[in-house]
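re: the backbone from monday

yeah here it is again, tokenized this time
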């Protein structure tokens, strides 16, 4: 297939946390609010002239300084982010919002605050810590509403004079939904027998929507959608269609490695993926927008921090339904090294998807930067692809 027009530009964009589109928005006088977790309602960070950015640490190497402060027993994502913050890589942020999604990411942002890694020369800079639900119920919605009002809307209004009204929230949701609809429509081409977009290309597009001002990406996404619609697919099938499920997946090199092994990544159920992170938010005129946004995040959340049994078992059913919808031959469960919530989720999910739903499953833990163990991972993925091919020949795979 011909290369997508904007793919090279987006690949270059993702090589830096402080990317070109962030710099452009900052030059225009806009306010950058950083977050560190999928559980933060994104539209609330995109009110008025504010824009949201999920923090990442591209091309991470040594994490020695962060390990000194956090020990080597905490997940590599949290240490990579702290290392980059200490290096001054996140100085573009005008505020940071951190949920108690897990203890490790909280420790990361606490160290950012204690070490004063951001906000130098900005008297309006703030760091906020939020308590978020552990259960997907009405009480969880009420908790999230109160936390968002106190730790997002209040500091945005008081520190930067940003309009946090119901109308402003609805407008932000409209932009958010447009981005989601574009991403999901592009992603639907992965369901085709001969897909006209690769999993790697789709991951680059999706990842960009998390780390760049969304409104600045819309023209690129719209043009790419039309380009994909008219694209001629490769006349050959991949050796296996694989769904990737797991934790913080902002390393596009991991998806590229999988596809270099002959697989096609047909679905992306991970923290930087489109499922469910790029599902549009439905709003009605009867309830306030804040409550509806919080309800969407509470009930659609697929994070393993949600501990009520309906959520615990529902997450595996959700993966199985997506695997069927996207015609996956197998499922790859992954976690970043030392990520506690996804360690338990990976263990249970790998067992249930294999035993209860009949899918071949590869279960791996991996470093934040896949380059540090690419050889080992390549061997495991190649063996997994071959096992799927063998089961197909034997008539035993889905």
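seq for it, each position gets an aa:
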């Amino acid at each position: 297939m011909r290369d997508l027009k904007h793919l090279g530009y987006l690949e270059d964009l993702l090589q830096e946390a402080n990317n070109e589109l962030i710099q452009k928005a900052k030059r225009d006088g806009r306010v950058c609010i950083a977050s560190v977790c999928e559980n933060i309602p994104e539209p609330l960070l995109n009110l008025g002239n504010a824009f949201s950015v999920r923090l990442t640490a591209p091309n991470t190497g040594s994490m020695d300084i962060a390990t000194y402060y956090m020990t080597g027993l905490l997940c590599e994502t949290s240490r990579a982010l702290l290392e980059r913050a200490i290096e001054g890589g996140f100085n573009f942020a005008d505020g940071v919002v951190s949920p108690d999604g897990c203890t490790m990411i909280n420790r990361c942002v606490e160290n950012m605050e204690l070490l004063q890694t951001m906000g130098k020369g900005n008297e309006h800079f703030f760091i906020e810590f939020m308590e978020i639900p552990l259960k997907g119920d009405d009480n969880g919605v009420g908790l999230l509403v109160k936390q968002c009002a106190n730790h997002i809307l209040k500091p945005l209004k008081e520190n930067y004079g940003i309009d946090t009204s119901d109308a402003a929230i609805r407008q932000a949701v409209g932009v958010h939904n447009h981005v989601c609809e574009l991403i999901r429509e592009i992603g639907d081409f992965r369901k085709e027998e001969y897909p006209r977009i690769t999993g790697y290309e789709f991951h680059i597009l999706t990842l960009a929507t998390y780390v760049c001002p969304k409104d600045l990406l819309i023209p690129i996404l719209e043009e790419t959608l039309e380009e994909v619609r008219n694209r001629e697919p490769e006349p050959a099938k991949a050796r296996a269609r694989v769904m990737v499920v797991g934790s913080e997946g902002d390393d596009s090199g991991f998806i590229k490695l999988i596809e270099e092994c002959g697989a096609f990544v047909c679905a992306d159920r991970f923290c930087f993926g489109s499922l469910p992170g790029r599902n549009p938010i439905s709003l009605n005129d009867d309830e306030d927008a804040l409550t509806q946004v919080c309800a969407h995040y509470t009930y659609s959340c697929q994070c393993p921090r949600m501990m009520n049994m309906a959520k615990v078992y529902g997450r595996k059913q959700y993966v199985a339904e997506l695997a069927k919808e996207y015609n996956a031959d197998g499922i790859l469960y992954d976690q970043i090294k030392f990520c506690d919530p996804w360690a338990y989720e990976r263990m249970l999910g790998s067992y249930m998807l294999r035993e209860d739903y009949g899918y071949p499953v590869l279960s791996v833990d991996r470093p934040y930067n896949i380059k540090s163990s690419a050889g080992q991972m390549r061997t495991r993925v190649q063996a997994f692809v071959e096992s799927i091919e063998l089961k197909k020949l034997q008539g035993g795979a889905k």
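The chain has a mean pLDDT of 96. The CA atoms of residues 302 and 314 lie 8 Å apart.
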